[in-house]
Amino acid sequence: MSSSTTHPLTEAWLRDLELLLHGIDPGERAEVLAGVREHLDGSLPPGASDDDVRRVLTDLGSPQSVADEAWAGRAIPRPGASVRSTWLGIAASCINGLGIALVTLWSWSVTAPFEIIALGTLLVIPWGIAVVLSMLAPGWTTRQRVTSALLFPATTVGYAAVGEVAVRIFGPSLLNIIPMVVVLGVVLWVLVGLVRAVTRVAR
Amino acid sequence: MVPGDDGILTHLRRGALEYCVLAMLAEQELYGLDIARRLTADGVLLASEGTLYPLLARLRKAGLVDTSWQESAEGPPRRYYALTADGTESLAAFKRTWKPFRDAVDTALQGGIT
């Protein structure tokens, strides 16, 4: 270790940078700090004058500018994994979300659980759009595409089936909401998983 | 707000500078200070030397460069950066994209004058 990085000015500079990099991936932070330290060691002979140190630090830029660059953290596109638009998957998920919300609301007004399926068929056109978008969406595996495409009909059928079973077992009761809520929970969990998968590609 | 020359340069550097670093490493392995000196020589590509280090860390994290320590005659060992196979491929892809992009921008700018 030469004396250059122990000069009070370089020490203060490095301390500032270290603070500004707080929250960045620890490995990356250590690498940036080590790189800058090596740069200082290489640019400044041991026992460099204050003026030399100031000049080298000016060339280095402010700790803030270095931290800004680190925080910019743009992922570099790797060959073969080009970053394509993610709107297809997000749009499919939005349509799915809206459809599920509508069917959930409508299911309150039905007198028999299987009427939910009849109501669900009213949304066949938006569902068709969601299927096309799901199939074209980059960033999803085939399984995720099929999941996205089938999420809406599965929800509708799921509500109807669970509702029917609950009515047969418990008769007409407010408690029948509970299995429906469970279905909704599972569906939302799947939907959130799909949205996360598609936005992960963007990063 | 109209960005000044510095603002425009900052925007233009983004997305191009990492490939300039990759291109430098295509010819030989270099250490950080050496890369910084070469990039700041013209004052266009790199405004302040320090911003190179987050960029190098990012390139390494993306698997486009690799580092190794090498002894130095003048002092402590230095961290040398070398291009990986992915880095070579990425640089080739950028080169393919860059020329049509540059030509298109030039054509558009010239079209604006006439």
Query: Which chains make the largest contact?
Result: A-B, 34 and 34 residues
Estimated helix fraction of chain A: over 70%
Alpha plus pi helix count of chain A: 9
Q: Give me the oligomer status.
A: heterodimer
The biggest sheet of chain B amounts to:
3 strands, antiparallel
Which geometry of chain B do the CA atoms define? globular
Count of helical stretches of chain B = 5
Distance between the termini of chain A: 38 Å
Report how far apart the termini of chain B are: 26 Å
Number of individual domains of chain A:
2
In the predicted model, the low-confidence regions of chain A spanning at least 5 consecutive residues are: none
Numbering strands along the chain, what is their spatial order in the largest sheet of chain B?
A: 1-3-2
Quickly give the structural class of chain A. mainly alpha
CATH C-level of chain B: Mainly Alpha
Low-confidence stretches of chain B: none
The coarse silhouette of chain A is elongated
Beta percentage of chain A is under 5%
Which percent range fits the helix content of chain B?
Answer: 55-70%
Any idea how many domains of chain B?
1
CATH topology of chain B: Arc Repressor Mutant, subunit A
Quick summary of this structure?
The complex is a heterodimer of chains A (203) and B (114). Chain A has nine helices and no strands. Chain A is mainly α and 203 residues long.
Topology:
The complex is a heterodimer of chains A (203) and B (114).
Chain A lengths: L7 H13 L5 H18 L6 H11 L2 H10 L14 H20 L8 H6 L3 H13 L5 H29 L6 H26 L1
Chain B lengths: L4 H9 L3 H11 L2 E2 H9 L11 H10 L3 E6 L7 E6 L1 H29 L1
